[in-house]
Design brief:
single chain, about 500 residues, alpha/beta, seven-stranded mixed β-sheet, four-stranded antiparallel β-sheet, globular, disordered N terminus
Length: about 500
């Protein structure tokens, strides 16, 4: 009897002791955008006072906002491959819109959605997350939860592509059909509702990729109405930087659209669009930004209505920026600040409320390590220096989660980007670029071995050259200082830092 009473008392004591129940992992909403410069009112109220972005403005109040984040190559597939595989272009060996890293380098490497799939999440994507088509075998089927017992692209919803024969469209969707992003938005809402209704404790990872303001600039009419034609402002530097090496010339893509070509625009150095067409393009781009802001708002409002605002991590990222006449160009495809810098925000319930803004240098290759840490999953280790593409689960980025607690903390001394020139030619080049914590951007255009995806940083080719811009006095990068005698010592020092590369930056960060 005494023994029985002892057991009963111990049991009651155990039941009355507060115990920490196993917490359900947070869901993840992973929102991607295409060709977006930081043209969001809340990010720069003075510069973008005319922009209508109420939903993203509100989102900044609940997020860590990284104002100084840079992509690893400013064009769709290389940037997205780098971000999603957590590795840099010289590891993925993706520099164009066709190559699939699983065929040339990272055959078995795991991606961000793949990590969540293997961690027990239900994962589904829609719209443009990976670069679509053969570059990802139609959105990398192996990364997602298998919906129907196959591993084909038929699992993946992209929407029907319309409005792509000219550079801009003012669309009446009721008359001519939904724009692709509207279809993706509605599909995302349906998925969120379905996942909320299911009887499962399994967390979910939903990726939603919006294309606008990517060319062609197609948006519903009401978003054009936000921007009267007579109020459109054009770039104040429609010319190449002084003393810019010719190899840094932007490669134009808007010139390939018939309505742009009809103006006579060829994309040459110090040439830009005629004013009336330039204003038409800028207005359509701004409408595209507001259209995307609206679509994101619909998805976030649905998340709140379903009761998932406080149990869902939200990441919003762009794949690169874009030039709207800056340096005379209408494209990305360079290492200029306006191409490599694009919005990056992350909301973690209970940690980022009130909004946190950081000017620390971060890179989009850092998103994998950051999101994995935020979700409480097993950390992703740094890839080895030798043959990093052979290691299945690793990254070449670093988590920036600590910036939530101290957004002004000493951080990376540089971010790294690159862009190729003359691929397939007898002599090819790579522009390796670095933005430093001293607000300098330095680029070296060097000889590049396409076979091995490597460089010795030799500069024997006739097109090799340097660029140096001081953002402290020249934030628009209008004057290349690299060939001025008084900057000779600085160029040599920065070239040494560029050669040491991201690993030296990472090691310095770890030891600080």
């Amino acid at each position: 009897m005494t023994k029985l009473l002892e057991i009963l008392l111990l049991t009651l004591a155990y039941l009355s002791t507060p115990t920490q129940a196993k917490k359900k992992p947070m869901n993840v909403l992973f929102i991607a955008n295409d060709d977006l410069i930081p043209m969001i009112k809340a990010l720069d109220p003075k510069k973008y006072s005319y922009m209508h972005t109420p939903n993203l403005d509100e989102f900044t109040k609940h997020s860590l906002v990284l104002k100084n984040s840079h992509v690893q190559q400013a064009v769709c597939s290389p940037s997205r491959t780098s971000l999603l595989f957590g590795r840099r272009p010289d590891t993925t060996k993706v520099y164009d819109l066709i190559t699939n890293t699983r065929e040339v380098a990272c055959k078995d490497c795991i991606t961000i959605p793949g990590i969540f799939t293997e961690s027990g999440y239900f994962t589904v994507g829609m719209g443009k997350i990976f670069h679509d088509g053969i570059a990802s075998n139609f959105s990398d089927p192996q990364s997602w939860t298998d919906l129907n017992g196959t591993t084909t692209y038929h699992n993946y919803f992209e929407g029907i592509r319309r409005y792509h024969n000219v550079s801009s469209y003012n669309v009446d969707e009721e008359k001519t059909g939904q724009i692709q992003d509207s279809q993706v938005r509605d599909h995302a809402v349906s998925w969120l509702r379905n996942l909320s209704r299911r009887d499962s404790d399994k967390p979910w990872f939903v990726a939603v990729g919006f294309r606008k303001p990517h060319l062609s600039f197609a948006s519903p009419s009401r978003f054009f109405d936000l921007y009267p034609e007579d109020e459109i402002k054009l770039a104040n530097n429609p010319y190449a930087p002084r003393d810019m090496p010719e190899i840094a010339t932007p490669l134009g893509n808007s010139k390939n659209y018939p309505d742009v070509a009809a103006t006579g625009f060829k994309g040459h150095i110090n040439e830009t669009l005629v004013n009336w067409k330039a204003k038409e393009e800028v207005r359509a781009y701004q409408a595209g930004v507001s259209y995307t802001d609206y679509n994101i708002g619909v998805v976030l409002d649905e998340l709140k209505a379903l009761g998932h605002w406080n149990d869902t991590i939200i990441v919003f990222w762009g794949d690169h920026g874009y030039k709207l006449g800056q340096h005379g160009a209408w494209c990305k495809h360079t290492n200029f600040q306006t191409d490599t810098n694009t919005p990056l925000m992350i909301r973690i319930p209970g940690r980022t409320e009130g909004g946190i803004v950081s000017d620390a240098l971060v890179e989009h290759v850092d998103i994998m390590a950051t999101l994995v840490e935020a979700a409480g999953l097993e950390n992703v280790e740094t890839c080895p220096e030798e043959k990093p593409w052979t290691v299945r689960r690793c990254t070449e980025g670093q988590s920036f989660l600590k910036l939530i607690d101290n957004p002004d903390a000493p951080w990376k001394n540089a971010s790294y980007s690159q862009f190729p020139r003359d691929p397939g030619a007898p002599r090819s080049y790579m522009g390796y670029s670095m933005t430093t914590d001293k607000k300098l951007r330095f680029t070296a255009w060097v000889d590049f071995n396409e076979t091995t995806s490597t460089t010795t940083f030799s500069m024997n080719g006739p097109r090799c050259g340097f660029e140096l811009y001081d953002h402290n006095i020249d934030p628009d990068e209008n004057t290349n200082l690299a060939y001025r005698s008084e900057y000779k010592e600085m160029v040599a020092k920065l070239f040494g830092q560029l050669k040491a590369g991201w690993r030296a930056t990472a090691n310095a960060l770890l030891s600080s």
